[in-house]
Amino acid sequence: MINITVDWTFTWWVVLVLAFDISVRVLSIIVIPRNRRPTAAMAWLLAIYFIPVLGIFLFLLIGNPRLPRKRRKQQEAINDALRSVSDNLELGTLRPGAPAWFTKLVDLNRNLGALPLSGDNGARIISDYEGSLAAMAEEIDAATTYVHVEFYILQADATTEGFFDALERAAARGVHVRVLMDHWANRWKPLYRPTIARLEAMGVEWHLMLPVQPLRGRYQRPDLRNHRKIVVVDGRVAFLGSQNVTDRSYNLPRNIKRGLQWVDMMTRVDGPVVASVNAVFLSDWYGETGEMLTADNELTSPLGSGDLDCQVVPSGPGFEYENNLKLFMSLIFAARRKIVMVSPYFVPDESLLLAIQTACHSGVEVELFVSEVGDQAMVYHAQRSYYEALLNTGVKIWMYKRPYILHSKSMSIDDEVAVVGSSNMDMRSFGLNLEVTMLVRGEEFVEQLRRVEDQYRSVSRQLTMEEWEKRPLRSIVLDNLARLTSALQ
């Protein structure tokens, strides 16, 4: 007779583990796809199925791509107020003969981002890194009432000394200086504490944007970032674009070791559009402080030095829709002859990729400027995974030569319309970052941008399909893996 002894403790543990595993998988299928892109949902499901413990932890940590409900309600209230106020503003005279698609695009932007199209604006592109810092410092030195500064990264170093000195002089003569800087992006930079100390010594008002400080009751998904770059002086002049206030190496030892230098572009604007740029700053100030500024920040600006039509389009997780993605796609579908895109981080979703391919198939010439070398490995490899599809469709890919990181963000279509700002053409900028983009109508502005594009082209090399097919197997594997992780939103 054979005695069989059953370890019921072990058996129950197996049953519990299996029950937990099945429950997690079933709940994941129910919860994760809701109101999420299919690609993002599939990426999260794969992560949870193959690495369940780590996948669940990451989903709980960064699985919600929205700002806290309070912040979203604030943004809705701000949008309603901006729509109401802008109805009575002097917005200048618009250029005649706008095509029907442009008028519809303006309406789309207004419905999504609340800010109007204005005329009689001047805009000057500054593609020199130190030159833009000097131009901003010069305008700050002319300030009489207020200076608003908002940057993703803000560091007091040798390169930015003139900018900080100008802020200090402004504060000393009684100008109201307000500063916003992203918390997470600056917290780990080498000069974070000295920069804070410098701001404190000046006596300016400063606040962190999207702080991750759970012990102080301030918390949201930690990789939601405010990526905007803005300066407003007296409601008279403003700057926006891609450049942070920092040395071209970002003062990071790994960048200095590799000799990396950032290439950026800022746009100086004057005219009624300055009020819209200021409105973006005021909304972010309100979001971080709860203070609605009105006394010295009227949403009006004098007529500018040109006759450009401009519209500011804010975007980010505080909005219900992806405002910048809809703007980019509308422009691509509107193009008839030529599209030039400059984006250091180019990781399109399916809709944007399809729009670009459709433009190529329609006979539109499409060019994309990216960097030959990357500073963020995962994004760099995810971006590369799209090159084959783009080359096969006929997109000309220009690679800005190392050791430079082409960090400018712009798009021009045909000869009359362009956009500039802080937004990359990637899933992070569409869904996770607070961005600001400016739509401009005017041949003279596009001519400025074309000159910058020509300069970029002169120091870039064109990627060919023949070269791309020779890349090593390890690169193919890394690119494809990074492409999967790029959808985790």
Provide an overview of this structure.
The protein is an alpha/beta fold. It has three domains: 10-62, no CATH class; 69-96 and 116-309, 2-Layer Sandwich (Endonuclease, Chain A), CATH 3.30.870.10; 323-485, 2-Layer Sandwich (Endonuclease, Chain A), CATH 3.30.870.10. The chain has helices at 8-31, 38-50, 52-62, 69-86, 100-113, 129-141, 161-172, 183-187, 192-202, 253-258, 273-289, 323-334, 350-361, 377-384, 387-393, 427-431, 443-458, 465-468, 473-485, and strands spanning 117-126, 146-151, 176-182, 205-209, 225-226, 229-233, 237-241, 261-263, 266-270, 308-315, 338-342, 346-347, 365-371, 396-400, 404-406, 410-413, 417-421, 425-426, 433-441, 460-463. The strands form three sheets. The chain has a 16-stranded mixed β-sheet that branches. The chain has a two-stranded parallel sheet with strand order 8-15. A hairpin with a 3-residue loop joins β6 (229-233) and β7. α6 (129-141) runs parallel beside α7 (161-172). The chain is globular and about 75 Å long. It starts with 7 loop residues before the first helix and ends with a helix.
